[in-house]
From TrEMBL:
Species name: Streptomyces griseoflavus Tu4000
Designated name of the protein: ABM domain-containing protein
Organism classification: Bacteria, Bacillati, Actinomycetota, Actinomycetes, Kitasatosporales
């Protein structure tokens, strides 16, 4: 399995960002081949984190590209700073 984690700082409206992600982005993630799981986390203080898990690297990489497009097209005013993106192979899980 592979995962992609995106950390967003400076979120201007966490509730609205969560609504848009849940209604618009989650369905996009479910369409990516090899989809396993997706989480959108409100870490507080204007920080939100997303975690996408896929069966292979290609799915994780596609999720990063789709996230960038979705943020640009739908969330730019709510997520004004580019995210820190980390991705790699899942080497332990529970």
């Amino acid at each position: 399995m592979y995962a992609a984690v995106r950390r967003y700082e400076g979120v201007t409206d966490a509730a609205e960002a969560a609504r848009l992600v849940n209604e618009g982005f989650v369905p996009l993630m479910r369409q990516v081949a090899g989809f396993v799981a997706y989480y959108w986390i409100d870490a507080g203080d204007g920080v939100m984190v997303s975690t996408s898990v896929f069966q292979d690297r290609a799915g994780a990489e596609e999720s990063v590209a789709r996230a960038a497009d979705f943020v640009r097209d739908n969330l730019a005013s709510l997520l004004p700073r580019p995210p820190e993106v980390l991705a790699g192979e899942v080497v332990a899980s529970a």
